[in-house]
């Protein structure tokens, strides 16, 4: 460990360690780049890739992000962007859950989709994408559908869960499971020009209140469609909520629903019962 620290200290410039030296430290000392990143942060230094996070997260906060595990349920329109943003933020472990493979209609909006990837599993694509942009982040791909029976396994060890689903019934089951496991949930939904985000803290019935009038059937997105920009905008808000929860920052969307209207460029809050 002393040799690793000495190597890192010798290659520090203004408190930053460049990617080349982080990767070389991993190779030279027989550790993963994930472990090398932790060593850098524990020394009070910062991998150079995160220097623009400063002001949003301190070095200590970056270490918290690195040690956090987040479960993203759904890797399509919303989930693909959330996975990417969490990885670029520096969240150390991401569980990417999705049973589906890419189809042609995904190409208009899903970040992880490509022509070459048609027919490929979405969860595996999430892992491949993150490996290409931040190898210090571990992605656990799960090609399976979330359900109450596997909830404890899929959510085990996570500090926050992200709802990136397109089924109201499954959203409700996820929300209930998070309450059973005392896990915060960041909900997001999109339809056409519109999107919504809310944070359900343990013990609250936030998602059930949002869908209190729903009885059955598909969501409104089946009628309004989903263009390229709506999932990107809503996923960004969801990722900000996850960041606040992980870092213990104030002002999460608890007890509130944020509604985005990208057609009229309006943003409204609605108070929800606890």
UniProtKB/TrEMBL annotation:
It holds the Pfam family ThiF. Coiled coil: none annotated. Transmembrane segments: none annotated. Residues 50-272 form the THIF-type NAD/FAD binding fold domain. This is HesA/MoeB/ThiF family protein. It comes from the Bacteria.
């Amino acid at each position: 460990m002393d040799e690793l620290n000495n190597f890192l200290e010798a290659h520090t410039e203004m408190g930053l360690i460049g990617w080349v030296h982080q990767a070389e430290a991993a190779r030279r000392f027989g550790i993963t780049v994930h472990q090398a990143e932790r060593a850098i942060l524990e020394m009070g230094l910062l991998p150079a890739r995160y220097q623009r996070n400063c002001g949003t997260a301190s070095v200590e906060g970056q270490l918290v992000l690195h040690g956090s595990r987040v479960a993203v349920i759904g890797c399509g329109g919303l989930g693909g962007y959330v996975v990417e943003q969490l990885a670029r933020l520096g969240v150390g472990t991401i569980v990417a859950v999705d049973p589906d493979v890419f189809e042609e209609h995904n190409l208009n909006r899903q970040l992880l989709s490509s022509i070459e990837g048609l027919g490929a599993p979405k969860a595996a694509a999430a892992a491949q994408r993150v490996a290409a942009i931040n190898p210090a982040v571990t992605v656990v791909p799960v090609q399976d559908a979330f359900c109450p029976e596997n909830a404890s396994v899929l959510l085990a060890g996570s500090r926050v869960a992200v709802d990136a689903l397109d089924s109201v019934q499954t959203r409700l089951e996820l929300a209930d499971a998070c309450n059973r496991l005392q896990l915060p949930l960041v909900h997001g939904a999109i339809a056409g020009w519109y999107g919504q985000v809310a944070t359900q803290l343990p013990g609250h019935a936030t998602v059930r209140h949002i869908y209190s009038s729903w009885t059955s059937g598909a969501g409104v997105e089946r009628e309004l469609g989903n263009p390229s920009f709506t999932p990107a905008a809503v996923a960004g808000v969801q990722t900000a909520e996850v960041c606040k929860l992980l870092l213990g920052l104030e002002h999460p969307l608890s007890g509130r629903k944020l509604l985005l209207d990208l057609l009229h460029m309006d943003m409204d809050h609605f108070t929800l019962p606890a």
